[in-house]
Amino acid sequence: MTKKIAMSCAILASLMFQGCTNTVKYDDTPASKTVQKEVGADTISNNATAMLDAMLLDPEVQKATKSSRPKLAVFGLINFTYDKLDLAAINGQLMNELNKANRFRFSDQEDMSAESEKWKDSLYQLFEDPASGQSLATAVAADYLLVGEISNVIRTQPKQKKVFYRLSLKLLDQSNGETIWREQRELLKSEKNIVYGI
Fold it and tell me: The pTM is what?
């Protein structure tokens, strides 16, 4: 099992470097949960783990895993910022938590690596388009796909500008392409007063 986890982390690590495309969103609608403090690796990791815990407690997820251990494809978090974030370590932590929970089986890692490589230039599409996620899950014979993102969100007021990390995770059902669980959080990255519109 340790070997499988290590291989999963290696796969996810390679994808993190490929996924550093800068996606900035201007959004006036905040997420339901916002962390108002300086963001470090521990903050991101703790929030991602808490989100995973919430997923495992979700009624729909509990229903899906009640009588069997469905097969899960774990793509993990995709970095849509230019920031150097150690998402490989965070994704590794998510894999450890999933293994401890023992609620899922996992797709073959060699198959997952080969299929993930095909999406390295279309990561935004993979995250946003349910049909794309469904296609990946089908290719690796998975019942569900766990995929997430971290991106920048800019929110401006007349005299203040705030930049957040938006952290999202979702669980997609391979059979119909529907998202059966999703959560997002925002982590305050920086804020400054605006002077003459700057």
Answer: 0.80
